C-alpha cells in the first residue's frame, strides 16, 4: 500500500498555495492591529457571509458545534425538550442538542438523498408522538418530553427537502434549525416560494462549520450562525462571550465560543472565491456522473433532485464490498473517506438510549455501502478518470471472484477509456 496518494481525497495544499499572498496579508494586518479576538475582521466577515447566505444576521463563533448549540438555545429550545434529527450525521449534531440541555430523537433518511425523509418525519409525529392534554403540545413517546424543534442536516452539501419539512414544522409548531455545516453554497428550489433559497436562509437559524476541509474552511476552527431573527443573533452573541454584550456585564451564563480575528480574516479573504469553487465542484460532480455511467448497476452515484443545487462538499457513492474497495483504492494511491460508518443510534456513546439495530434501516444500510471519493475544486478530468478506472478494475476483479469467467471468453466489461 502506498503512503502517498496519487489522487488525494482532498487537496488543501494547492488552494492555500494559490492564496499565499492574500493570507499572509491577513496575518500581517492582525499583527499590525493586534485584533486577535473579534474586531473589524470578524465584523466584516459576518457582514459578508450573512449577505452571501441571504440572511440578515451572521454571528461568528469558534466551531460548527458551538454554532448549532447557540442557535438551538437562541431559538428558544429549552432543557428537557426533544429535538428531532437524523442518525447518519457527525456526532456534533447530537452533541449540540444534548449540550443545549435538550434530548434528541431520530427519524430515518430518504433512500436516494440520505437526507431527512419528510415522510418519515410525518410518520414519527403521528405514530411515535402524542398530544399532551395539559399543554396541547406534541410529545415524544420515547423521551416523554415535548418535541419543539427539528434539525435537518444538509448532508454532503445537498439540502434536505425544506418545503416539506417546513410545512410539517408549521403544522406541529416546531422550530427548524438547519445543520448547514457541509452546505456552504448549496441551494434549494422552493416550489412554495417559486425561487431558489440558499442553505442557511430557510430555518429560523442555521449553523455552519469552517473546519479546514469544508467548502469554506478556516486555517483552524470556526463556525457561524445565520438567521433573520435579531433576538437569536443577539442571544448567540451573548452566548459566545460569557453571556455579555458589554464587558464584564453578564446577562446570562455563556461560553467561550468566540471566533479569532485571524480566522475571520482568512475566511473573508476566501469567501470571495467560494462561488467559483462551488461551480468547480459542480463541474467535477458532472464529470463523475458521466464517467460512472459505464458502471451503472455496480456503483450508485449520488442522487441529485430537480430542486437541488448541491455544493458537493463530498461526492459519495454506494457500492457493495465497500471496505475491500477502499483498501484497493488506497493501494492504487487514491484517497477516500467514509462519512459515516456507524449511525449515531448505534454508537457506544449512546448505548444508554436503548436504540437497536434495525431501528433506522435506510441509514444502517447506507452506512455499510457509502464511500466518499476525491472531491475538491482543483480536481480535474484526468484525476477523476484515474479514480473511476480504479473502481472499474476492482469491480471486474470482484465479479470474477464471484463468478469466474470461463477460459476463452472476455472480461465482463471493457476498461474505461
Describe the 3D structure.
The protein is of the alpha/beta class. It folds into two domains: 12-271, Aspartate Aminotransferase, domain 2; 274-402, Aspartate Aminotransferase, domain 1. The chain contains 13 helices and 17 strands. It has helices spanning 12-18, 20-33, 40-52, 64-75, 92-99, 118-127, 162-172, 230-240, 261-271, 274-292, 322-331, 361-367, 381-402, and strands at 57-61, 82-85, 103-106, 129-131, 138-140, 147-150, 175-179, 187-190, 195-198, 205-209, 223-227, 244-246, 249-250, 299-300, 308-309, 315-319, 370-373. The strands form five sheets. A seven-stranded mixed β-sheet has the order 1-11-10-7-6-2-3, with helices on both faces. Strand 12 and strand 13 form a beta hairpin. Helix 4 (64-75) crosses helix 5 (92-99). The longest helix has 22 residues, at 381-402. It starts with 11 loop residues before the first helix and ends in a 15-residue tail after the last helix.
Tell me, what's the shape?
Answer: globular
What is the CATH architecture term of the largest domain? 3-Layer(aba) Sandwich
Largest sheet geometry:
7 strands, mixed
Q: What class, by secondary structure content?
A: alpha/beta
Average of the residue pLDDT scores: 94
